[in-house]
Amino acid sequence: MKTYLPVVLLLGLTCSLGAQAQERIWRCGNEYTNNAADAQRRGCKVVEGGNVTVVQGTRPAGAAAASAATPTRPAGTGPRVDSPEQRVRDSDARRVLEGELRRLETRQSELLKDYNNGEPEKQGSEARNYQKYLDRVAEMKAEIARNEADLASLRRELERLPAQR
Fold it and tell me: Which of 157, 136, 158, 144 is nearest to 109 (CA)?
């Protein structure tokens, strides 16, 4: 055992010196640099706790030529659809959204009726446990607020659709 101790110590010392020899790295937003003057001028933060490997991305040579030749569409748009087919899609979307809106409005009226202006009827053990009652009232209020937000969202979505003809 004693013959291995100097080797282990020497190996540990060599590893620790190698770790200390690494330059400091600074992070400047999404960029990394090891230039101290540039980092201080830009107000970058030192990266600590581990090695950082940064690989610069390159664009394949064929991609630049192919993208220049192909016309681009705004992000999120699919293939073009002729006008009659688009009108059918819009009317289907309107019908679905209106059905969902009616369902949520019915649910909202039920919630408001049960809520009874913040004083719903006590149930079972709530007569003895007032905190349980308060918790249920708070849950009801939160559910009403969520439902109102859903209703507002559906109404905005319906306003975005083109007018029915």
Answer: 144
Q: Are 99 and 157 in contact (CB under 8 A)?
A: no
**Angle, to 10 degrees, between the axis of helix 130-160 and the axis of helix 83-115?**
160
Helix extents (H) in 34-129: 36-42, 61-69, 83-115
Other CB atoms within 10 A of residue 135 CB:
12
Global pTM reads 0.49
Give the whole-angstrom CA distance, residue 10 versus residue 13. Answer: 5
pLDDT at 8: 45
- Burial of 64 (C-beta count, 10 Å sphere; 0-12/13-18/19+): exposed
Residues 74-99 have a mean pLDDT of 82
Structure letter (DSSP) for residue 127: G
**CA neighbours closer than 13 Å in the CB half-sphere of residue 67:** 7
